[in-house]
Amino acid sequence: MELWVTEQQNDDVHFTIRVKKTLFTEKSEYQDISVLETEFFGKMLILDGVIQTTTFDEFIYHEMIVHVPMFSHKDPKRVLVIGGGDGGSMREVTRHHCVEIAQWVDIDAKVIETCKEYLPEWSNSVKDNPVVHLKIEDGIKHMRESQGLYDVIIVDCSDPVGPGEKLFMYDFYRDIHHALNEDGLFVQQTESPFYHRELIRSVQKDVRSLFPITRLYTANIPTYPSGLHCFTIGSKKYDPSSLCAGRSLDFETRCYTPETHSACFVLPKYVRELTE
Question: How many CB atoms lie within 10 A of CB 268?
């Protein structure tokens, strides 16, 4: 009997993948967690029925959500990752030798434990790294209680449904602004320019009201809705559309390059319109 997993993009579109076997499934205090072995995308993490990441293309998402903001800042010493329970974003953060404190805040310890066991190629790379500080806590609460602590904040969150909705609201962005240093910046994954147009417009409006420099950039990620994914940056000082002077790429990557950094901000007209 063939096994398939289906993610619903909207009422009219579903995305279906053939499954080899189920490696893990359990309901945590916050969400349903599954790890599947698929025929095409390799191992796949799913939360509440929504694909989070796969071994096939995780490097694109994690490199683009981390290295674009990190190389936009002159000297990011204190970095915060909110969410990112699979460990991929923190893995990329720790490749920057300038980082002295990499704070990792996630609300669901079970996701982190599951990924350490079934997706060790991502999460184990930060194991025992002295700069990484893991805190099991609500990211919204952490932001509310932080003032001027961070150079870069990376919001590697799930979709804006249920509890995740509050991570896409003005109050959260206001708290991020307060938590950043005077030259700090943040990035958040902001979904598909095809399926989430109103969300992107709303986020752009809220972030622009707080940050003098607000940018949208894209990356092609096959397992995410439509294959084209957006990221929003709010910056107090540095324009992220180009690498910060003095920063250079001194480690191997599979997707991110200085040329990709510049190119990802060149938006097709239909995407650029979402920022206007």
Answer: 10
Please give the residue range of the domain that contains residue 10.
3-54
**CATH code, domain with 254:** 3.40.50.150
In this structure, are residues 6 and 25 in contact, taking their beta carbons and an 8 Å threshold? no
How many structural domains are present in the chain?
2
CA distance 36 to 88: 17
Per-residue model confidence as pLDDT tens for the chain (276 residues): 789 999 998 899 999 999 999 999 999 999 999 999 999 999 999 999 999 999 999 999 999 999 999 999 999 999 999 999 999 999 999 999 999 999 999 999 999 999 999 999 887 778 889 999 999 999 999 999 999 999 999 999 988 876 678 899 999 999 999 999 999 999 999 999 999 999 999 999 999 999 999 999 999 999 999 999 999 999 999 999 989 888 899 999 999 999 999 999 999 999 999 999
The answer to whether residues 31 and 73 belong to one domain is no
Whether residue 86 sits in one domain with residue 46: no
The residues assigned a catalytic role are: 156
